[in-house]
Amino acid sequence: MNEFDYREIATASMVLFAVIDIIGSVPIIIDLRQKVGKIKSEKASVVALFIMILFLFIGESILSLIGIDVNSFAIAGSFIIFFLALEMILGIRLYKDDIPETASIVPIAFPLIAGAGTMTSLLSLRAEFATINIVIAIFLNMIVVYAVLKSSSMIERVLGPGGIAILRKIFGIILLAIAVKLFRTNMGV
Q: Which residue from 138, 139, 178, 172 is spatially nearest to 30, judged by alpha carbons?
């Protein structure tokens, strides 16, 4: 279980890519960049990487220490995703940050990239795959995340205001569906 395995790396990478859904988060990233100005791609990527690796190794211990099970943690994450989705679909602003310079860390690094869904997935992957392969998968995903964050201005120019509005509504509905699925799965319904 402590062996380097390309198949495990590929599978873990795909799972994390789907859960992080950085492509689907482009409208949120563009919206946050418009609200706060510049997003520090490097800072957001490094903080998310640190959170994910730390959680991979000590996440379950931390949760059990404070008496929170993984399902409750995932349900809390589903609420955060739900509210982000409502912002996108309805065009309202629920998230208000008193210190806008921190948008690179909250809400981008956490909970957008390294949120409850990602952390729950990391715990699931850890039960199945070698830790080294999961760590490599995290690094690969952070490279993609960094590239998307860095090119968000270009993506915004290419799509234009109309394209971004459409993308925001579509991915808002997808994000809402992910929130409902995460909630339902962890409620046992």
A: 172
pLDDT above 70: residue 138: yes
The encoded tokens of residue 168 equal 């925001």
| pTM: predicted TM-score of the whole model, two decimal places | 0.75
- DSSP letters spanning 49-118: HHHHHHHHHHHHHHHHHTT--HHHHHHHHHHHHHHHHHHHHH-------SSGGGGGIIIIIIIIISSHHH
pLDDT tens digits along 103-128: 778 778 887 899 877 888 898 788 78
Radius of gyration (C-alpha) of the chain in whole angstroms:
16
Structure tokens at 131: 């830790």
In whole angstroms, give the CA distance from residue 175 to residue 107: 15
Closest CA to 119 of 173, 36, 26, 50: 50
CB atoms within 10 A of CB 22: 19
Q: Distance of CA 91 to CAs 165, 179, 183, Å?
A: 9, 18, 23
**Distance between CA 100 and CA 170 in Å, rounded?**
26
For the chain, the domains span 6-187
Chain segment 158-188, per-residue pLDDT in tens: 988 888 788 878 877 877 887 788 788 878 7
